[in-house]
Structure to design on (521 residues):
C-alpha cells in the first residue's frame, strides 16, 4: 500500500534494506519501497541505505504521520472486500516462510504476503489465488481517489516481476482506490466506497522497463562509494526536494532560485539557472523571463525594498462594511467518510474562531466553538456560528475558496441554516487577495502569501511559535485524537485548550494584519 512519498512509506512498513556482503562487493536486497524511492531520487535512496543517520535526520511531520495512518486505515477497510483472508505479520524470514506455507496450501486470500527472490523483496497488499487455472491476482490498495500512472503502475510492476521470477503465474493486476462519488448513508457500503481498476495491460506493458530500472537500482545502491555531485532534485522546486537535499547540494543556499514562486512548473528556466550555476536571486540574468509574481519576488529581494501600492490597498479595504467578522475554520479530512452525507476526504469542520469588530476603535470581541464529541459536528458548529455572526457586515477570511466551500457544505447538511450560510458566503472578503494581487510584496514573504508568511513581517510581535499547536495539520490530527483515541480527560482538555489558542490566533492575526494595513494607508 503506497502513500504519497516513498520515505513516508518506509516509516510505515518498517522495511529495512538487507545488505549482503561478499569478498568483492556489497549487494543489497532491493525492497519495493526503496525502488520507488530510487525512482524519485537515486542519491537519496543511497543515503537511506548507507547513511541512514542522514536520511532519518528529520522527523516525520504531523502531516506525514497522518498520511501513514490514513494509508493503514484505508487498507484495513479495503480488506473487508476479501473475506477469509489471512494476514502475514512482519517482513523477516519467518514471514516469508509463513507466506510460502499458505501458498502451498492454496490459501485463497493473503494480506501482506512477503516474497523475495534474487535481489528483490516486496510485501503485497492483497494476493488472490485463482483455483481454476492456479494463477494469482494482485491487488494494490491506494489511499487516493485517483490512479497516478507515474507511480502506481510501477509499484505493481515491481510486484508482478518478483512473483513471476518465483515461477508464479500472475493473471491480473488491480488498483483499489477510494470512490470520490461515494456518499455515506448509514453503515459503510464497502463495495461502493472503493473502485477496483483492472490495470493488467498497462502494468504488463511496463514490466520490461521496470525490470531494467530494478537492476539499475541494485547496482547503484550496492556501491559503497558515495555518489558524486548533486542529486536529481537540484532540478525541482523546493517543495519537491528529498530529505537529504542539503547534504547532497551544500552549494545551494537556504533561500534562492529554488524558492521562486512556482519555479517547479517552469522546468526549463530552473534547469537553465542550475546548469549555469546560478542559485542566488541576485545573480539571475536579465534575459530570463518571469511572471509578474516571480519578478516582484526577485526584485524586492535584490533591491531590499517592499512593493506597497497604498492606493490599491485602500480601495480594497474601503469595500469592507462594519461590523467586520474575522472567521476561520479548522477541519479534518477523513479518508473513510465518518458521518452521513460525507464523501472520501471531505473536510469535517470541527472548530471555528470569530473575532468581531463593530467599528474602528471599538473593542474587539471573540467567539469560538470546538466540537469535542465523536458525532458529526455540522449541526452544532453551524448553529453556534448563527448565534455569533450577524446578517450584515463583511466576513473576512484567509483563502475564501476553502471557507466558502465549508459554508456551502454546512448549509447542505443543515438545510434550515442554508440561508444563513449563503449570506455568510455572499459577504466574504479574502484578505489574502491584497497579497495575491501583489499590492503588498515584501522580500521576507519569499514569494508566499500564507498568513504564516505575512504575519511575522507585518506584525512581528505575534507568533505561532509560542503555541503548542503551530499549524493546521497538527490541529487536524490533535482533534482526531481527542475524539477517537483512548486518552485521559486531562490530555483531552489540554489538547482542546491548545486547539482553541491556535484557532484564536488565526483570526486575531487577520485582525492584526487588517489593522496594520489600515494604519499604513
Amino acid at each position: 500500500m503506497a502513500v504519497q512519498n516513498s520515505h513516508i512509506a518506509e516509516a510505515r512498513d518498517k522495511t529495512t534494506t538487507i545488505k549482503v556482503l561478499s569478498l568483492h562487493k556489497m549487494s543489497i536486497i532491493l525492497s519495493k519501497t526503496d525502488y520507488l524511492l530510487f525512482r524519485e531520487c537515486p542519491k537519496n535512496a543511497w543515503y537511506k541505505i548507507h547513511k541512514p543517520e542522514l536520511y532519518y535526520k528529520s522527523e516525520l511531520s504531523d502531516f506525514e504521520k497522518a498520511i501513514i495512518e490514513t494509508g493503514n486505515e484505508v487498507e484495513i477497510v479495503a480488506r473487508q472486500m476479501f473475506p477469509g483472508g489471512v494476514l502475514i505479520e512482519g517482513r523477516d524470514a519467518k514471514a516469508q516462510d509463513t507466506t510460502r506455507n499458505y501458498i502451498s496450501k492454496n490459501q485463497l486470500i493473503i494480506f501482506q504476503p512477503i516474497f523475495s527472490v534474487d535481489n528483490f523483496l516486496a510485501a503485497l497488499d492483497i494476493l488472490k489465488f485463482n483455483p481454476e487455472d492456479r494463477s494469482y491476482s494482485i491487488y494494490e490498495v491506494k489511499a487516493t481517489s485517483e490512479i497516478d500512472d507515474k507511480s502506481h503502475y510501477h509499484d505493481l510492476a515491481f510486484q508482478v516481476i518478483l512473483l513471476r521470477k518465483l515461477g508464479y503465474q500472475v493473471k491480473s493486476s488491480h488498483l483499489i482506490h477510494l470512490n470520490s462519488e461515494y456518499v455515506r448513508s448509514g453503515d459503510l457500503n464497502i463495495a461502493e466506497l472503493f473502485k477496483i481498476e483492472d490495470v493488467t495491460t498497462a502494468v504488463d506493458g511496463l514490466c520490461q522497463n521496470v525490470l531494467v530500472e530494478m537492476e539499475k537500482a541494485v547496482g547503484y545502491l550496492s556501491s559503497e562509494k558515495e555518489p558524486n555531485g548533486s542529486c536529481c532534485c537540484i532540478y525541482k522546486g523546493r517543495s519537491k526536494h528529498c530529505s537529504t537535499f542539503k547534504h547532497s547540494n551544500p552549494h545551494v543556499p537556504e533561500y534562492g532560485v529554488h524558492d521562486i514562486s512556482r519555479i517547479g512548473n517552469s522546468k526549463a528556466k530552473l534547469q537553465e539557472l542550475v546548469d549555469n550555476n546560478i542559485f542566488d536571486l541576485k545573480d539571475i540574468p536579465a534575459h530570463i523571463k518571469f511572471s509578474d509574481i516571480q519578478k516582484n519576488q526577485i526584485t524586492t529581494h535584490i533591491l531590499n525594498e517592499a512593493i506597497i501600492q497604498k492606493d490599491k490597498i485602500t480601495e480594497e479595504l474601503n469595500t469592507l462594511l462594519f461590523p467586520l467578522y474575522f472567521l476561520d475554520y479548522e477541519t479534518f479530512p477523513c479518508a473513510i467518510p465518518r458521518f452521513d452525507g460525507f464523501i472520501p476526504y471531505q473536510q469535517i469542520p470541527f472548530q471555528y474562531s470569530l473575532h468581531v469588530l463593530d467599528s474602528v476603535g471599538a473593542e474587539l470581541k471573540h467567539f469560538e466553538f470546538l466540537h469535542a464529541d465523536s458525532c458529526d459536528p455540522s449541526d452544532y458548529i453551524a448553529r453556534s456560528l448563527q448565534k455569533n455572526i450577524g446578517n450584515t457586515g463583511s466576513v473576512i477570511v484567509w483563502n475564501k475558496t476553502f471557507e466558502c466551500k465549508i459554508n456551502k457544505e454546512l448549509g447542505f447538511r443543515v438545510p434550515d441554516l442554508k440561508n444563513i450560510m449563503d449570506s455568510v458566503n455572499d459577504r466574504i472578503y479574502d484578505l489574502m487577495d491584497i497579497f495575491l494581487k501583489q499590492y503588498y510584496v515584501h522580500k521576507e514573504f519569499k514569494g508566499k502569501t500564507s498568513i504564516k508568511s505575512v504575519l511575522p513581517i507585518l506584525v512581528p510581535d505575534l507568533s505561532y511559535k509560542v503555541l503548542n499547536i503551530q499549524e493546521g495539520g497538527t490541529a487536524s490530527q490533535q482533534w482526531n485524537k481527542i475524539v477517537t483515541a483512548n486518552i485521559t480527560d486531562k490530555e483531552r482538555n489540554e489538547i482542546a485548550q491548545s486547539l482553541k489558542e491556535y484557532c484564536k490566533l488565526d483570526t486575531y492575526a487577520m485582525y492584526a494584519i487588517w489593522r496594520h494595513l489600515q494604519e499604513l494607508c
User: Anything to note?
Assistant: The longest helix spans residues 489-520. The chain has three domains: 6-222, 234-299, 314-520. The first strand starts at residue 18 and ends at 21.
